[in-house]
Amino acid sequence: MKLATYEYKGNVQIGIVDEAQARILPLYKAEQALKGTSSLPLDMQGFLEMGDTAHSLATELVVQATADLYVPLTDVKLLAPIPRPRKNIFCIGKNYVEHVMELSADKDLGSAIPKYPMVFSKPPTAVVGPNAEVKNYKEFVTKLDYEVELAVIIGKTGKNISKAQAYDYVFGYTIMNDVSARDWQKNHGQWLLGKGPDTFAPLGPWIVDKAEIGNPHDLKISTKINGELRQNANTGLMIFDIPTLIETISTLITLEAGDIIATGTPAGVGLGFLSDGKPHKLLQPGDEMVLEIEKIGKLVNYIEK
Questions:
Q1: 1 secondary structure, DSSP code
Q2: pLDDT, tens digit, for every residue of 39-84?
Q3: Segment (H or E) for 303
Q4: In 25, 161, 273, 286, which residue has its Cα 20 to 30 A from 170's Cα atom?
């Protein structure tokens, strides 16, 4: 099941994407037509909070839906699956060995690899959806970069969640671009200002439920900038896996339905490409970013011209 938030004829709602036939099923309308009820919410946050009840009903609606209830994907504007998260996005730094090493000054593996997950955050105001423009802040930022990440969508409230129970709290997965102002990230020590500007968290194109993904640690993950392949790896190369991240965060912070955990990026970021000791593949005005994760899809965004 691929769940999307979209705008259609001026209304924002959620639906289930049939990618093969390039169409989307409006859940609220389908429930009214097929069940004569209106229990499903119009927003993704409300859907996630309904838990298994919402998921089961949505599954039924897909089975029963007739072609006339669908809307062509070409007629809708896809938005971020959760357009305004209730909390900051939990982000993980330095979670792929080759990425750690490409940005390491002394290339000492022993000292560069973190012993514990490095957790920082992006504010809800950073989120934008597919095909949206990412601000370049060219009057302030000199080193703009991209990072493809598998993002975990939490499906229910939990605290002190063990690794063995972690996947019980996962609803599904999407793609996040951890856009970064490397100069601000370096200058300020803490990463919030370098990682958290408005539009620096493109998210989408939809949420794929965990049953459809299967093993989240065996997915191809890649980035193309203007058609050039920059990042090309597999999520199985994470240093700290998803159960470890959920256990670590929930030890001190309650996880709730709709929370997002971005799991880190592999090697191939712009700052990692060197020429005469200087990065030469950072983002430029007008650049197209195409991020792809197997079984999820593609997230496309553009840098402001």
A1: -
A2: 999 999 999 999 999 999 999 999 999 999 999 999 999 999 999 9
A3: strand 297-303
A4: 25
Pairing of strands 2-8, 11-18: antiparallel
- Would the pTM count as exceeding 0.90? yes
Determine contact, residues 163/243, Cβ cutoff 8 Å. yes
Query: Read out DSSP for 209-273?
Result: EHHHH--TTS-EEEEEETTEEEEEEEGGGBSS-HHHHHHHHHHHS-B-TT-EEE----S--GGG-
Between the two ends of the chain, the Cα-to-Cα distance in Å is 35
CA angle 244, 258, 48 (to 5 degrees): 115
- Tell which residue, 127, 119, 302, 148, has the closest CA to residue 219: 148
Measured distance CA(35)–CA(218) in Å, rounded: 38
Tokens of 241: 């896996």
What SS3 state is found at 133?
A: strand
CA dist list (Å): 249 to 238, 245, 257: 17, 6, 14
pLDDT digits (tens, 9 = 90+) for 176-203: 999 999 999 989 888 999 999 999 999 9
Q: Are 96 and 47 in contact (CB under 8 A)?
A: no
